[in-house]
């Protein structure tokens, strides 16, 4: 496909997304119907679509409207590219710009330039203070591709060399002693021998740093209460060299976990809630709760536009309920770790404060927040413990 044809494909997909289709579904449907598109074409089209999703409001402002064609026009203008070079009408490229389109659009201002919804902006500013604008700007760009080196299998330097032999170039990150940032060949990671043999896993840097903050004595009982795909359960198993129980309210989310654990040589056992209760108490319970994902909107930018105040209230209630349920599973001298990939105060310190108000016999050991940037997503972690009687 020519660069222009890729832009035309992105326009078509954006118009489908505007009707309410999830981006992944729209991309998959397009790829199935476009057998002529090679892997580089599919990747380029996907990049266009996701770039617009991260910058929807500013693209609409710069393009003059909210249809797929105007959004792509806005994206190119916002990236200092000349749209006329791609909107040529040649082959499968989009038709040349009309006179109206050539003059349409305005420079985005304020919250439009920040590419956030109006209703969210006050929460964003209250949560991030002087950093609000800078963090919003970070969210308008692609996230780094990061790997966790499986310290149970190899060293970071050896993993880096093994990846390099397979065309994946990476650098070490200061965010965690296990973290690598892929600088070239990101699409080759999943096909590499280093990945297949469990030397590395795809995992964000802040997720790794969060696990680095956890510690347990040898022989401790460890539970990942909201395990999902199991990224943090695997990281804990590698860090502690110990078995980890993994639970999720939607067990199907853990379906790939046994294969991932086998690849990593990690002892992670998916269990149901009855088993969790039977095996309690635990020395460490991690609750990586469902959240707005506001710290990871570079990777899942639709979340920016689908979040509402009502959904945020609902998430806060779920977060409180999970904390209460998980607290009952922690032993007398154990630790409850509360984590979100959110930068919003109402999901972070406010939930911890509400928990401590409901549970007067608990206290905060420490908390830490990571802002999204070149070394990973935005994350929050609070470590809670029971007062000794
Ligand atoms: C942020 S995701 C977890 C991501 C995962 N820890 C990782 O590192 O890949 C939150 C998970 O919590 C699960 N969940 C939601 N409500 C829950 C509940 N009441 N009890 C346990 N898990 C729950 C969701 O199904 C979801 O998989």
Descriptive labels:
389 residues, alpha/beta, Alpha-Beta Plaits, Rossmann fold, 3 domains, seven-stranded mixed β-sheet, four-stranded antiparallel β-sheet, 11 strands, globular, binds S-adenosylmethionine, transferase, RsmB/NOP family class I SAM-dependent RNA methyltransferase
CATH topology of the largest domain: Rossmann fold
Q: Supply the helix-strand structural class.
A: alpha/beta
Give the mean pLDDT: 97
Secondary structure tally, helices: 18
Based on the structure, what is the oligomeric state of the protein chains?
single chain
The domain tally reads 3
CATH class of the largest domain: Alpha Beta
Strand and helix order: HHHHHHHHHEHEEHEHEHEHEHEHHEHEE
Q: Give me the Rg, rounded.
A: 23 Å
Instruction: Label the overall shape.
Output: globular
Strand order of the largest sheet: 7-6-5-8-9-11-10
Percent range for helical residues? 40-55%
Portion in strands: 15-25%
List unreliable stretches of 5+ residues.
none
CATH architecture of the largest domain: 3-Layer(aba) Sandwich
Keywords: Methyltransferase, RNA-binding, S-adenosyl-L-methionine, Transferase
InterPro entries: MeTrfase_RsmB-F_NOP2_cat, MeTrfase_RsmB-F_NOP2_dom, RCMT, RsmB-like_ferredoxin, SAM-dependent_MTases_sf
Protein name: RsmB/NOP family class I SAM-dependent RNA methyltransferase
GO molecular function: methyltransferase activity
């Amino acid at each position: 496909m020519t660069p222009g044809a890729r832009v035309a494909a992105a326009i078509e997909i954006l118009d489908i997304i505007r009707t309410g289709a999830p981006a992944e579904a729209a991309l998959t449907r397009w790829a199935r119907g476009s057998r002529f598109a090679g892997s580089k074409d599919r990747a380029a089209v996907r990049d266009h679509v996701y770039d617009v999703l991260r910058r929807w409001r500013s693209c609409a402002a710069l393009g003059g409207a909210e249809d797929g064609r105007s959004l792509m026009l806005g994206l190119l203008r916002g990236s200092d590219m000349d749209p006329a070079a791609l909107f040529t009408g040649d082959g499968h490229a989009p038709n040349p710009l009309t006179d109206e389109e050539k003059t349409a659009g305005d420079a985005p201002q304020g919250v439009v330039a920040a590419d956030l919804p109006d209703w969210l902006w006050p929460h964003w500013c209250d949560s991030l203070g002087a950093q609000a604008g800078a963090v919003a700007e970070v969210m308008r760009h692609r996230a780094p591709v990061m790997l966790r080196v499986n310290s149970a299998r190899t060293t970071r330097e050896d993993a880096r060399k093994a990846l390099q032999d397979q065309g994946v170039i990476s650098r070490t990150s200061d965010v965690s002693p296990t973290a690598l940032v892929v600088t070239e060949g990101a699409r080759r990671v999943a096909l590499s021998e280093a990945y297949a043999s469990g030397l590395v896993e795809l995992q964000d840097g802040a997720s790794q740093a969060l696990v680095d903050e956890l510690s347990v004595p040898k022989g401790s009982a460890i539970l990942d209460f909201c395990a999902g795909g199991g990224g943090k359960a695997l990281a804990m198993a590698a860090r502690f060299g110990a078995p980890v129980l993994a639970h999720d309210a939607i067990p199907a989310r853990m379906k790939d976990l046994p294969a991932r654990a086998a690849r990593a040589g990690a002892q992670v056992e998916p269990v149901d809630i009855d088993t969790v209760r039977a095996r309690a108490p635990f020395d460490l319970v991690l609750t990586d709760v469902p959240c707005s994902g506001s710290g990871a909107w570079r990777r899942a930018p639709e979340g920016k536009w689908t979040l509402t105040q009502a959904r945020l209230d609902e998430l806060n209630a779920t977060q409180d309920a999970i904390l209460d349920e998980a607290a009952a599973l922690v032993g007398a001298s154990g630790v409850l770790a509360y984590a979100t990939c959110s930068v919003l105060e109402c999901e972070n310190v406010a939930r911890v404060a509400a928990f401590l108000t409901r549970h007067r016999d608990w206290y905060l050991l420490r908390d830490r927040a990571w802002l999204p940037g070149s070394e990973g997503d935005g994350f929050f972690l609070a470590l809670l413990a029971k007062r000794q009687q």
